[in-house]
Specification:
Blueprint lengths: L11 H4 L6 H18 L9 H18 L4 H24 L6 H16 L8 H14 L3 H13 L4 H28 L9
Length: 195
């Protein structure tokens, strides 16, 4: 029988997938507790998406270091956490309003951005959002973007302004979503109400 340890960063239903790694689970719990303690005093307001992603990445790196002798275990835990974070961000993006075409473009851009986001990579969120916007406009949502670009071009606005506006709005919304996920990670039960 596998002893069930309390490790808040690993959802209870996922602990059984980790086999008999009691000592590694204990190390992950310690890393998470240390990370929470070090992050709890840091400023939340006025930061951008990149800062929150860096802070989350620091947790993931800490898990990798703590379980360095058991790489498979560390990668499994990192994968579990990444999946949960991705689900949370996508869930939050899915409830964004889409009552106007620009809001739809932002929502689709964020869905693409968060579905491809790697929480272990050091990224430039603005560049990734730009990539997501380009990717989104070339898929099924492209027809909407093409119509919007055409409409704005006729009014003298140009498509570059529309894309810049979409990316600015998407960056702001991405930061808001990442703040919510980050604050939830700092709580004693990170997967509680947002899981």
């Amino acid at each position: 029988m596998i002893p069930m340890l309390w490790c808040p960063i690993i959802p209870p239903e996922e602990l059984s997938k980790l086999g008999e790694h009691e000592e590694d689970i204990r190390k992950v719990r310690e890393v998470y507790d240390d990370w929470r303690a070090s992050m709890s005093h840091k400023q939340i307001k006025g930061s951008d998406a990149g800062l929150y992603l860096d802070r989350i990445r620091m947790l993931m790196i800490g898990i990798g270091i703590a379980s360095g002798t058991n790489r498979l275990f560390a990668e499994t835990v990192q994968s579990i956490i990444s999946r949960r974070l991705r689900k949370q961000t996508l869930d939050l993006a899915s409830v964004l309003p889409e009552d106007t075409s620009p809001k739809k473009a932002v929502k689709r851009t964020l869905s693409e951005f968060f579905s491809e986001l790697k929480f272990m990579r050091d990224i430039d969120p603005e560049e990734e959002i730009k990539t997501a916007a380009i990717s989104r406009s070339s898929d099924s949502g492209g027809a909407i973007m093409s119509r919007l670009r055409s409409m704005f071009s006729k009014k003298g606005g140009g498509s570059a302004q529309l894309d810049d506006a979409t990316m600015r709005r998407a960056s702001v919304e991405a930061t808001r979503i990442l703040v919510k996920v980050y604050v939830q990670l700092l709580s004693p039960d990170p997967w509680g109400s947002a899981a």
